[in-house]
């Protein structure tokens, strides 16, 4: 009897993170859409405020807001974006989703990588990377 109870508890704990793993990509994608909408509106403060603590601890607000402003200044408004890759990884019941987008702006193109942590069905942007030759040479 005790064996079955312990097994049942272990199974419940093991499966508790499965929903985030199975649904991780679908949970993270709207976070990227919100990011892009705020970028279109030039609402850089809201973009920074929506990031997770890990993001904020790695990059001071002034520098991140300056990066967002530089993206807008150098590349112009976002015109189109297309997801080109994704990955979901769960380790120690923590789900991390990496979403890669090919984005076309008014004045150039970029590859954007979003890393989103998903906990209990809630997305949190923990890293953002933009790679753009067009942005570098302007």
Characterization of this structure:
- The chain is of the alpha+beta class and about 140 residues long.
- It has one domain: Nuclear Transport Factor 2, Chain: A (Roll).
- About 50% of the residues lie in helices and about 35% in strands.
- It has six helices and four strands.
- It has helices at about 1-15, 20-40, 45-50, 55-60, 60-75, 135; strands at about 80-90, 95-105, 110-120, 120-130.
- It has a four-stranded antiparallel beta sheet with strand order 1-2-3-4.
Distance between the termini: 70 Å
CATH fold category name: Nuclear Transport Factor 2, Chain: A
Main CATH class: Alpha Beta
Per CATH, the superfamily is: NTF2-like, domain 1
Which regions are unreliable across 5 or more consecutive residues at pLDDT < 50? 5-15
Number of strands: 4
In the sheet with the most strands, the strands line up as 1-2-3-4
Shape: globular
What share of the residues does DSSP label as strand, in percent? 25-35%
Mean pLDDT, nearest integer?
89
Question: What topology emerges from the helices and strands here?
Answer:
Elements: H1 2-15, H2 18-40, H3 44-49, H4 53-58, H5 61-75, E1 78-91, E2 94-105, E3 108-119, E4 122-131, H6 133-137
Antiparallel strand pairs: 1-2, 2-3, 3-4
Fill in the keyword field for this structure.
single chain, 138 residues, alpha+beta, Nuclear Transport Factor 2, Chain: A, four-stranded antiparallel sheet, 6 helices, 4 strands
Please provide a brief summary of the model.
With 138 residues, the protein is of the alpha+beta class.
């Amino acid at each position: 009897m005790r064996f079955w109870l312990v097994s049942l508890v272990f199974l419940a704990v093991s499966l508790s993170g499965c929903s985030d793993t199975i649904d991780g990509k679908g949970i993270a994608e709207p976070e990227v859409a919100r990011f892009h909408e705020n970028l279109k509106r030039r609402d850089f403060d809201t973009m920074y405020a929506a990031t997770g603590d890990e993001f904020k601890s790695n990059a001071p607000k002034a520098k991140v807001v300056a990066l967002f402003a530089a993206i807008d200044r150098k590349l112009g408004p976002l015109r189109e974006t297309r997801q080109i890759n994704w990955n979901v990884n769960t380790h120690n019941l923590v789900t991390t989703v990496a979403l890669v987008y090919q984005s076309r702006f008014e004045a150039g193109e970029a590859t954007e990588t979003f890393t989103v942590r998903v906990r209990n069905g809630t997305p949190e942007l923990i890293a953002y990377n933009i790679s753009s030759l067009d942005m570098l040479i302007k």
